[in-house]
Design brief:
Number of strands: 6
Distance between the termini: 38 Å
Strand content: 15-25%
Number of helices: 6
């Protein structure tokens, strides 16, 4: 029996999503069926135009008009939390997928918009049948313990600190 693993890409450095998407493309290129769930993103990032053309990769619908969690009203937070819990349940039911990328899921848990218990349940349900990649900034001890691969990306220098904003095709 083939072993499936949980990958965790986290930290304050650039490249978590980029690395995760690269792994998703590699998995798809080897015949795996890939599901990508993006949390705290609206789906308009540049890589999605390419991902949408690749047979074998399915992007789950994003929550439209996403704000940073700290900018959301309590009503927006309630609606986002309901959406993200339903999104994870929808993915959990997809036994036709061999690989899941849960982009920024650590941040949505940290913001309280998805319970860590729901995520751990998903990991437990899927671990024996699918490869799973989680990204975000700060993992909990329980998520670190659940992971097979742990990669921390640390920023030593970033132009944002000098006032350069996110650039199309590079950061989004």
């Amino acid at each position: 029996m083939e072993r499936h693993c949980i990958h965790l890409y986290y930290g304050d450095g650039k490249g978590k999503t980029t690395a995760a998407i690269g792994l998703a493309i590699r998995a798809c290129g080897n015949g795996m069926r890939v599901g990508i769930l993006s949390f705290l993103k609206d789906g308009n990032s540049s890589e999605n135009r390419i991902l949408d053309t690749i047979p074998g990769i399915e992007r789950f619908p994003c929550l439209p008009a996403v704000k940073f969690s700290f900018q959301m009203t309590s009503d927006e937070q309630t609606k986002a939390a309901a959406y993200y819990h339903a999104l994870l349940k929808r993915a959990e039911a997809r036994h036709d997928l061999d690989f899941f990328l849960l982009d920024e899921v650590l941040d949505v848990c940290q913001a309280g918009l998805l319970s860590e218990e729901a995520l751990l349940h998903f990991l437990h349900q899927q671990k024996n049948r699918a490869e799973i990649v989680l990204t975000g900034h700060i993992p909990s001890e329980r998520l670190l313990a659940a992971a097979d691969y742990i990669t921390e990306m640390h920023s030593h220098r970033h132009p944002y600190r000098e006032g350069l904003t996110a650039r199309r095709g590079i950061e989004w």
